[in-house]
Structures
1.
Amino acid sequence: MFVCSCFGVTDQQIKAHAAAGACTPRQIASVTKAGTDCGNCVRTIQGLLGRGACPRRELIARHDLSAVADQPETIALDEAA
């Protein structure tokens, strides 16, 4: 089924990117553009992602920041101060 009609993104593509580690609608948008035009699909993307396990969130919760330090969204504490 098409989730984003603006860019022709399907639910299978969303699920595949989620399985590869995309945990948020913003991360899905960065690889598919879904949700960046009219925005009508964002709620559907959120529903597909659910509140399940997210490898990156789990690493942060365990304070294993070295595994996510190379992520562009991560700001080192020294830089934020």
2.
Amino acid sequence: MSQIHKSFSIDEHYLNSLPFPAFVINQDGQASIWGKNAEQLFGFSATDIKGHTTSFIHENLLRQLSLETFKSILQSEDSTYLDKIQVYTSANEEITTALLAKPLIEQGEHLILIMLMLPELMINSVSNSRTFTDLKHGLDSTFMTVTLDQDGFILECNAEFLKTSQWTPKRVIGKTFWQLFPDNDVSEKITNNIWRNLNNCNTWQGEVEKVTKTGQSYWVLLTAIPTFNLETNEQQFILIEKDITKSKTIQHQLEKIAYIDTETGLMNAHRLEKVIASMIEEDRHFSFVYLSIDKFYTLKELHDQQINQSLIIEFTNRIKMYFQDSAMARINENDFVVITPLSEWFIQGFLSYLQQHPIYSSNIAVPISISGGITRFPEDQTTFSQLMKASIATITSVREAGGDKIVSLSKATHKALNRKALIEKRLLQALDQKNLKVLYQPQVDVYTGKITVVEALVRWEDEVMGVVSPDELIPIAEETGLINNIGSFMLERACEQALIWKKAGLHLKVAINSSVREFRDKNMAKSVLDMLAKTGCPASLIQIEITEKFALEAEAATFITQQMRKLENEGIVFVLDDFGTGYGSFRYMQILPIDTLKIDQTFTNSLLKSEKTQKLMHGMVQLGKSMELKVVAEGVETAEQADLLMTYGCDAIQGYYISKPVTPEEIETLLVK
């Protein structure tokens, strides 16, 4: 069998693309593949034909084809053409046609492709052939065209192709499809994909890099089309190409501007992210080394303009010299990243290298200090975002310790960072799906013994994370800005619950915790009032608890104070939470519209253990009273603590002695008790 027959692949899609009725039979004369045109001609479906286990085709449809002729075709290496032969339909109708039989091998099995070239279809084929010729002439005048045989050898090409590729007909004819492309892994992957599509009878289109006879690169928009040459009875492929080298060059220049730091020639952060993504996809192990110049702007101020311009260039040169063959990027003016497989001890040696090769300004060495972090992939972190966050956390830690070190974080710290990143991701989903829930912790008025206020507290039990405590959740939410979303969620739930209790005849106020970050939004007051209007909740039922850190910032920011005043005028009460743990200045107590002080539980916890704490807490209660503020003590866990706080003059107490945070239904049970 010839190489042509061995490599030629036939399927139903291919048969249906032919202009003639066609089918494939095996060496026993049984139908293997049955084309739609054959189905229309003979009146038998593919199911009808394939249901027969005897030589149905040979004995019925091709009964004039002798067994000797059949065996001869099967053993031949070439196609057999029979000018006039009779075939028979399902209705036993006789049809005279020309027959082309092509032997082939599929997975070791000997087969014959039968094509019946009916006279009326031959006329259409000639007509279509003329149309194709006209079309090809039009393409030749506009595009580069190359015709390949079924093995990928070049059969012919047009003048446009020769002009661009710098080949001559004598030299290029007989070359292979693969020799037109660069000799590298990327090109090999693309060309193999094109060839696979063509052999599966699929058209391929895309931008590809090619090479001229002299090895110079050029780019084309390539359309590769599988065809069948009726004259030679062979599979062929046509490549239609448009030169896009000019536009591709402009694109590369724009990409260079977009991805390269113009001052140093290093990658910028955008390009670094793409490179890291590619390395992660390939599962390549590496160290992500983040280097930051300490006190950079102070250095610039201390030295003249010349060092301002050369400091970064000189520093970049030293990175390039020390970390040879490593990928490098400039993140911002004084931060750099090196991607390297080098060991930790070698990376840390960069500090010694800088001391041995100082940067000079007017013959004086510039005292450069570097804070650096080493994060490994995949041992420490597994995404670009996580690598960056871990690096920033490391740099912060190094600078807090005095700087001028390159360190790696402990496994425990990386584990905590990974959990933090997962919390951020899961929290977004929880807020979107409203998976957070609200519990309420009651406050008891010491004079009446009744529950008058409940504090709304967010609780989150995630199916992946498990229980996430407020102490862990709130700082992350504040850092990411999701605290605003949580605040809106809590406000809406608090308003809805307060209104439910009011309609049930229960006189309960609901306190919610608010972050200063929420009040930095100048529309915060409006948002709160809009929520009250939306839910129909009276403003007098809502209290907003703020921290001393909030109060200190509000003291300096007039617009925050104005928003608080606006809400106070509508009837909302402000409570100063965690009193005693913050700042020494109490000026904000005069400026801000605070109605209640809530003494922090750390003082309550040690109340019975320390006489000093007792005096301090008594003093805080008296301070609040002197300013005509209500005073609440939180963290009360025993009757002894409650009794002592009552003697100090506290107005209300809150803590496990009364109740832990519970559901609205449990609050109602407590009210009954």
